[in-house]
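Weekly puzzle thread! Below is a chain. First person to post its structure in token form gets bragging rights.
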Amino acid sequence: MSTRGHRLLARIIRLSTVVDRAARRFDQVRSVLVTRWASPSVLEAYNDLAYERTPVYRAGTPEFRHTLFNWEVEAIAGAFPDPPGRLLIGGAGGGREAFALGARGYEVVAFEPSADLARSMVQHAPAGIRVEALIGRYEDLPSLTSAATGASVDLRLQGPFAAALLGWASFSHLRTSTARIAALQRVGELTSGPIVLSFYTRRPRHAPASGFCHRVAEALGVRFTGDLFTPYVGFYHLSDPDELADEVRAAGLEIVQGSFD
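Winning reply:
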């Protein structure tokens, strides 16, 4: 093939990037529309579905992640009391954190809004560890449901827990500041020690927001407050340092150590 032919093929390949740009814009518009118009119950149902259909969160699948992240290892080592002790884990999925901490000698009570994921925790818990799997949301605390028996469980009768973990960015799926404050309050009331939480971070902007997504949002009368949507994890909120500090304080807690890295 001649040099001209090579250049022509290269240009055709280059032109195909229009598909990528269109997909990015569609994703931006979808995020604005879903976060603006979808009801809380629809967003809850979608988030549950997104996690249920992703094998990495479901115990018993080959893709299931069963280890802690490096930052979790460091945070837990610096904050949690030594085992044995009773831990409370929210947004536990199929038990990634629960299994890892149970293997270290902790007694774990873990809850998850998706009944399917909570039941996978029951079905695939490693032998010899103490993990109780419950079904429920932060909004449901302290009354949850046993994933093993279907019985109602009042966590006030099991506490106080030595420490708590709001698992794998589950805090970011709480849709409003009021809901995030209430979740921190409820977990705090059940816990006598430290609470570790992970979240999606909103980095400070050094220039006014611009771009297609923001133009669409402005046309719809939507002000960006950190709320986003992706088909992979559903609705999520980006927290900035000042906002998170205000929410922690409003919940009657204090930040001992924080990282927005």
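Puzzle host: Confirmed. Bonus trivia for everyone else. The first helix runs from residue 3 to 15.
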